[in-house]
UniProtKB/TrEMBL annotation:
This is C1q domain-containing protein. It comes from Mytilus galloprovincialis. It is found in: Secreted. InterPro entries: C1q_dom (IPR001073), Cerebellin_Synaptic_Org (IPR050822), Tumour_necrosis_fac-like_dom (IPR008983). Its main location: secreted. The keyword Signal applies.
Amino acid sequence: MNVKYFIIFLFGVHDGDTKSIQNVTEITIEALQNRLEKMESSLRVLDSTIKNISTSKRDDEVMFFAIIKSNSFNLERESTVVFDTIVLNEGNHYNNYDGVFVAPRDGIYLFSWTVSSYNANYVMTELVVGDEVITSTGEKDADSVSFMSASMTAICRMKKDSHAWIRTTGYGSLHYFYSNDNHPRTSFLGLLIRAE
């Protein structure tokens, strides 16, 4: 149905007289055209507002999940662990070349990571935000022929442009990481819980 005819129908036609909702006895075509133009203008503004809200909502999404897919290696004490295979990186705030997440805004963030080792080796890691160690996890009491994993979840406040990463602790000398291509066992995730 043509919009002009729909508006005329909306206002009602009775016995040849045109009446509006406001009880005006006659509406001209020009008045209807003006109303139609105003409605179309309002719809354009509404459509633009909805698009802006959708875009800003996508810009607010901050989350990443990265793994070490098929690599076993040793790291020295206080070395950054680089989770090189990105599974998800909404907002592109995690760098899989240096292993560092950069906060895009002030807020409360959640981080979780899992590290694995094998065959009587140990691995001890910690979450560092700025220059502060938030918490740590790892495995140091291993059997000689078993796989071990340790996980940790932490929530912390970050300022815009501050950095977060996983590194080995100061414990021991070499930390051994095990991650298998078919069963990735070493991973790191983070997300913005609440912007401030």
